[in-house]
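>> Question from a student workshop board

For tomorrow's exercise we were told to take the sequence and the ligand below, predict the bound structure, and bring the output to class. My setup keeps failing. Could a helper post the expected result so I can at least see what it should look like? The ligand is zinc ion.
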Amino acid sequence: MRLYILLSFLLLAVFCSSLVDASRVKFGTLCSRNPSNRQRGCDKKYGCGHYGAKRGNRKHMGLDIMCADGDTVVAPFDVKLNGRFMPYSQNNAINDGINLSGQGFCFKLFYVKPDRYFGTLKKGQRIGRMLPMQRVYPGITSHVHVQMCDRSDPTKYF
Ligand SMILES: [Zn+2]
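>> Workshop helper replied:
Here is what the output should look like for this input. Compare the format with yours to find the bug.
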């Protein structure tokens, strides 16, 4: 009986330390011209870039990282490309993106035209290019949208 208790504590300790490790992982640069992953603030017309920001009746379920139209988007760490993700049901000039995994994360990048949708990339290698967001939302702070697959808040990883 005591052995079981001891073992479960041991398992709990291992589990907790793995959680701590995951929270220590940080995203590297996403857009070449924004090496420090500067986050989008608020625009007059289009709202704010932080997680949980208002989008009409809905909530913004990701974090916006500033990214100039046409900039090169790169892998923030070693990643696996898991196929296309299209943010909008109605097509527009920025309706492309990619599902990614790496470092124990599963996440999506919106508004990026990937060079390819499958395969693996090393940290810093090119994923693709930022799509022309100004064409769809004139005056917005152009950005990539980072969204975790479980829709949790990615802010602590930046
Ligand atoms: Zn966003």
